[in-house]
Automatic annotation (TrEMBL), chains A, B, C, D:
Belongs to the zinc-containing alcohol dehydrogenase family. Its cofactor is Zn(2+). One of its GO terms (molecular function) is oxidoreductase activity, acting on the CH-OH group of donors, NAD or NADP as acceptor. PANTHER family: NADP-DEPENDENT ISOPROPANOL DEHYDROGENASE, ZINC-TYPE ALCOHOL DEHYDROGENASE-LIKE. It comes from the Bacteria. It comes from Pseudomonas kuykendallii. This is Threonine dehydrogenase. Keywords: Metal-binding, Oxidoreductase, Zinc. Residues 12-355 form the Enoyl reductase (ER) domain. Pfam families: ADH_N, ADH_zinc_N. PROSITE patterns: ADH_ZINC.
Length: 357, 357, 357, 357
């Protein structure tokens, strides 16, 4: 049985490169040889033991690669084709998928829903920080990469671009909206770009790191709020002349940002939450207008599927958004443990790390 | 200056009937002689000092009556016409109104939004527990009552019917949905009726009072959960065979019901909140799927305006919903203090009290 | 190779019962033994040669039956289970499916869309007027029938109930709407029921046959317009006191009904078209307000998939809609040629014919 | 009674500058002294007698100016303030306004709807090609112009920018969509800009004039189709590799463009129609997929009201769209007859003409 290298979760604070068998290809699967992948903040949660996964699982959920072998029932793709797959790989046939909620896919569950069930790679099945990854339900999930795009150009499509854009989409950003994005990590930066693509005309980014502020401006932020310069709520209310924002996108996952996002909404506004939280959340009575403010709080898990991937790659192809400035570091798969060390500690201004087997 | 009787907030625990001048009619106003009105749970909050209003304010926000006099700029109505007006009386011309958020109307505010600004009667202007009420922005707010409908038939349109239905509307109930309504007070009962009108096929009402359970069944509840018979979350999950509900409507305003509503949602479901809260709220991390469940929390303040009133009266006229069973008691305006005493203490199985000057 | 009986299109005006091999089961398929099926108006178009299908094709697209055999990759169902499948059987994994347009499914086409591509049974693959039918993409399409429901109770779910309801859904019927349905054949009758389920309060059915008018009233029509009693447009405008309707549902497929539907719309209204047309259509300039009336024309092909089937069966289970009165005649599969003769000529007040192998 | 100059429709082919009384200001009105206005294609239809208006009516519906006098009931604005008003001036209080259909405003009509009723200036009341214009329902319609914006920068907001953007909005353009715009006159050019603002990544403009093609590219068109180079349907299908477009925007008002727009739609696509038609329209059966293609045809009349104006000016202020290249010619009001002569004959590459009293 042929072997491959894979980054495997061993125990808390231990992700190591190991040899594992190259997976067998089931009838609906595709085996993809990874050419580029990356590390996500969620992988760091896994590393630190904050998000539980099975010991021995290969981590990683952002694959770019070449189809090595297609399952016997898969049509519409060919071996040798360059593809990506979303971090979320819905089956296409669960009740969740068929009612427009594909990220909560649960094909094997009793009612067809599983909370976060669409997120399989590096969570409930082996992921893509490896030489090969098995893509389930390949017909629904493989996205053919246009020849003109490089691996690094499409590297953000599987997760952070899809997630970030969905912050603006779920918030139903309209032409002429004022939008704030709390935290300008990779997902927040993509939320800035998404808000611009949806027609927002005032886009406020909140972060304190100059490099992130700079990329935010490139991607569409019209104003930057640095929370070290004073209360961000007060600064945002001042920037909007007391009006508040139409849509506040939370892209960090903390009580502080969640609450600030709620406090800067105009009456009738929407808090679009992307963060992964690790504590209970508190909704202050006043910030919630006692339930009478026509406020909305919406959460979104990264949309996946090949149509999503196609559209995101169209955005790249059209030149409307360029996310390559986010790739600040590059490592060989062999050095992935060093990449984790850098990324987990957010050293050297790292935003995203390209990993190549 | 002619006088009228009006129920006035004097101080905490004191609403009394007093003589006040009949108001002068401005160019955009209509003076309406009240023929029937009612007391809302919110009025009880005012009585108890839990919701602050100015001393001397006439309370009440659910008017049925006859147009006594129209402002000089008002066209499209005639004196002597029988009308209702919504509890919420948007101006029609604020930025809030023009961006589809009329209940947060703020025509005089800097940006055209004021949190809960559309609620004027018995909140920021004199209300309708009186012989006369002045309806602002009459052209946007007066709803002509069809001759065939009695005062009591339309008495719920201004507030609880509009609010209750909006719970189902904001929750975007679809044909075939499973919906739960937490608390079967008048608003919860109207939410049950609204869920039925929107096509829900399983409607679960949660309450413990037999009379309310009975009305809920009449209005469309297919199942009743009595929280004294055991944990309502467990009961609802059992009723739905473990699936959870598509939409959970909160119609009470407490942490307990809010949290239970969140816990019974299927992944991707919507918590549609109608309650007026009096404490901060807590979102448990697990019930929120750490922010990854595609869950939505939406709040709605009673929609107003004459188009809303027209549609609600159409619902009554068509015979699709009959809310007269909610009128359990009747008082003269002269006896309104007794009516408050009964209603505030929820004695004698009271649901709604009709007050007639 | 075992044989089965199947109703096969031979040539114009010839559908005959023939022996055909029982189909082989591919990995994603399910073989269903038909227990009840029916004939659709579209089948009559096929019979008359007005809609072309391949010679030798088994016709019929409304299956109720028992799973005889599951494909090797199919999970989540078991042999012996009673099921239905929609007339439209989307794959779940085409671009059309993944962008919310499953009825135009085109998994094998270059871009993943094929006009009407989701309609496979009795159109591009063998249908279900036979002893057995092969259901493609079984995981996305099989709908488990609750034990409490009879075959005849769910017989309308695969097509006419789904189509008729979609007329109201695509028209975005709101609480308090006035809706007209042109033609009260089986689909128009289901559109009436759908409009009621979505909250319409005035529902006008247009037809001339007393038996259909009677069923329309049972399903929710508040008014009937008989076009033999005078111009239906004038009658509808009179019924609505000159206002016009919010949503007009066309359920026949002719210039006359299409144009009348346009003419009775209020400004800003929606024409929701379900009919299968056989000629070019003309939009009169005045009826279209020269393009300035904020009018919408939307067309919908029967939604399919197992979630749709589940919801429709919920509607039946809940008792909210009973379509069994539509089954006016019953035939054995052996006598299907007689059933066609009756149905194609609309003799004996036939609405729907139940066929049992 | 003080006089002013105004461009008045006298008879077919005669619009002349005349002296008229400066209008009296009613309680809800604002008198605006025009500083800049322009001529619309619709004005040319009026000039040619193709669209009927009353003799003696002042034409023009695109005002920029200074508030000269406010009605006695108008609050929230001040005399001397620089403002625009939309071509469409909804009342804010009709049933049409209150059901989200403000352009069909009919405050004085029996049911509150009048087809195209929101279009008042230069249609049913005196327009703004004059020294002064009376703005009805001023509180709903005046849009304060930011100091930093010039008259010419906001001159397109009242009509063509609002109309053009609405083509993309009503078409529900999504991130990654392919959109075609038929005819690159001023409204088509704004539709291109609107499609870009909504996230389209492939935007195809169809026109034959090089100057318009050039501006279209500046505003976001990624491809140009010149119908003199061959059948535009074939060219568009080739450009999209046979897929067709998600949204086709018709911005001319002819059978040819309407039909071509329908023919290039992918299954499930939307034809968003902005043109003012002057003949009946024909829907070819094949282009309409016989009613089975999930196609939508939506028409939109220019959205008005002060919130719309505010948002459009935000787009200008943000620098996201610059429409000043459309102003190709400038005239004094005294020379408006010459401006009409130029514009009506589309001489000298004219796109829009700025008129200053």
């Amino acid at each position: 049985m042929p072997k491959m290298k894979a980054a495997v979760f061993v125990k808390k604070n231990r992700i190591v490169l190991e040899d594992k068998p190259i997976p067998e290809v089931g009838p609906l699967d595709a085996l993809v040889r990874i050419t580029t992948t990356t590390i996500c903040g969620t992988d760091v949660h896994i590393l630190k033991g904050e998000y539980p996964v099975a010991k021995g699982l290969t981590v990683g959920h952002e694959p770019v690669g070449i189809i090595e072998k297609l399952g016997s029932s898969v049509v519409g793709f060919s071996e040798g084709q360059r593809v990506i797959a979303g971090a979320i790989t819905p089956s296409g046939h669960s009740f969740a998928c068929l009612c427009g909620c594909a990220s909560q896919d649960g094909p094997g569950s009793k009612h067809g829903f599983t909370a976060t069930g669409g997120w399989k790679f590096g969570n409930i099945i082996d992921g893509c920080q490896a030489e090969y990854v098995l893509v389930p339900d390949a017909m629904a999930n493989l996205g053919a990469v246009p020849d003109a795009l490089s691996d690094e150009q499409v590297l953000m499509c599987p997760d952070i671009m899809s997630t970030g854009f969905s912050g603006a989409e779920s918030g139903k950003v309209q032409i002429g909206d004022t939008v704030v994005v709390f935290a300008l990590g990779p997902i927040g930066l993509c939320a800035v770009a998404g808000a611009k693509l949806k027609g927002a005309t005032t886009i406020i980014g909140v972060d304190t790191l100059p490099a992130r502020q700079e990329v935010a401006r490139q991607l569409g932020a019209s104003h930057i709020v640095d929370f070290r310069q004073g209360d961000p709520v007060a600064q945002i209310m001042a920037l909007t002349d007391g009006r508040g924002v139409d849509v506040a996108i939370e892209a960090l996952g903390t009580q502080t940002t969640f609450e600030a996002a709620l406090r800067v909404l105009r009456p009738g506004g929407t808090l679009s939450s992307l963060g992964v939280y690790s504590t209970d959340l508190r909704i202050p009575l006043d910030a919630f207008a006692a339930g009478l403010g026509d406020l909305k709080i919406v959460t979104t898990l990264c949309p996946g599927g090949k149509e999503r991937m196609r559209r995101l790659m169209e955005v790249i192809s059209s030149g409307r958004v360029d996310l390559t400035p986010l790739v600040t570091h590059r490592y060989k798969l062999d050095d992935i443990e060093k990449a984790y060390e850098l990324f987990a500690n957010q050293r050297d201004g790292v935003m995203k790390v390209a990993i190549t087997p």
